Amino acid sequence: MYSREELKILRSEFWEMFGQRCEVHPELRERKKKWVLHRTKIRDVALKFEIGREDAKVMIEVSHKNENKRLQVFEILEKYKAILELGFDDDLTWDFVHEREDSQKEVCRIYTNLEGVDFHRKNDWPEIFNFFIDKMLILERIFMEIRDILLDEIIKSE
Prior knowledge:
The protein is α+β, with helices and mostly antiparallel strands. The chain has helices spanning about 5-25, 65-80, 80-85, 125-155; strands spanning about 45-50, 55-60, 95-100, 105-115. The protein has one domain (about 35-155). Helix 2 (about 65-80) crosses helix 4 (about 125-155). The mean pLDDT is about 95.
């Protein structure tokens, strides 16, 4: 079992090593900003990585505080489900109500996950890094292709 300080160090080491892995990846090394993440240009919609003790996730997260607006954005994303799932061997998981463990905040998530990996096991890290890079490249590319359409629909629905 790790202490709080040891977990903080381990987490920092994980993300530092992930950053180093991204620096040498052929599709990422030329990019100034490696990932879009929170810079989607759609309010309260972010692309995210998540790592835990049982799995790793690559996701789109809708985190608007207002439940109606959050669900409205999720429904707009659902219209493009077939497009968003292109390139994924397994379907994405569409979770319209998820409570975040770190903040107890309700969000909507669309994600793919890698089960059976543990952030605490350093020998799992290469597999997690490859999963994160491969899946986020797909998700980011597809999301960016439809971002302007999504943004227009969201603005019209307000």
